[in-house]
Amino acid sequence: MTEPSFGVRLQHLRTRRGLSREVFGGLLGRSGEWVKALERGRILMPRLPMLLRIAEVLHVNDLADLTGEQRVPVVSFSKGSHARTPVVADAMLASVPAADAEPDLRALRGRIDDAWRRWVTMPDQKSSVADVLPGLLAEARAAVRALDGTDRRRAQAELARVYSLAQCFFAYQPRGELVWVAADRAMVAAQDADDPLAMAAAAWYYGEAYRAYGHPEQARATALDCAALLDPAAGSEQRARWGHLQMSAALSDADSGNAGDAWRHWDRASSPIPSGDARPPTRSARTTTTRGCVSVARTWTASRCAWTSVWSDQLRRSAGRTRWICPRSRAPASGHGACSMSPKRTTSATYAPASST
Hints:
Layout: H1 6-16, H2 21-28, H3 32-39, H4 48-57, H5 64-67, H6 75-78, H7 85-93, H8 105-121, H9 125-130, H10 133-146, H11 149-170, H12 176-192, H13 196-212, H14 216-227, H15 236-255, H16 259-269, E1 282-288, E2 294-297, E3 304-306, E4 318-319, E5 349-350
Helix pairs in contact: 2-3, 7-10, 8-10, 8-11, 10-11, 11-12, 11-13, 12-13, 13-14, 13-15, 14-15, 15-16
């Protein structure tokens, strides 16, 4: 008898759980079309992290129930590590170097801005920042060591931005421990800078790490603690970062299954920009899926004004990988915030923390 394929096994286990493709895909942060392609064998079996997530959603205790005799390739464990990962890791973990000359914070800030611009605009974002991260880590750490007083706090804020960029890079590598090191160091640097804006930016990325590793409650607490340090009425940048932290709380509440709290934080995050703020608006939309699986989406539609920023002095935004923001909340298909926008058009936003100095 022929061994059932991975796709056949997946479809059987999914239907046994009573999940539609759309709902199942939403729980995985994917679309129903992706699930269909996987079940039909049009795309390859996913890597180990996704297999483990599938097993969790389907209540499968043994991966063999999913894969059968089909081998799980080594790349499933390795994620296809970038060639420069060891170099970037060494730069982050090495002892703090001494500055060769008096640090130039303005020039350093410009190079960090350029690195973030590479991350959100270049097609091969990992390679584009892997070339500059080692130097930025060394230079920013040396600047903190060499300076004191107000300049040292400014250097700490810039170092926090570099660590957050390193976290983004390591998130694509098979080195989960480095994600945590980078996230923690970014927050510590921001706190040492005594800069609420820097702490807000670090909290966004810390929340990403917490949620990715199954700790939405800690992500929510971190976001709201840092949001409490900001005054959304004090100006566009504080409003923007406060809004991002409300979104982080919404994501975390959704992952915890708290639909009401998720929508409440979403409403706060997507409320209109204060009057007199001349920043160009970003459009937001909220979409619900079938079978009670709620998806919150940020997309370029005309449904509601939200935050955006300019490269020079604000937060950055790019419409990137598809993401279901509230995969586990439950609400009727015609429920709160429903609209006609197709879920396949929803996107998540990645922003680069601007210098707050």
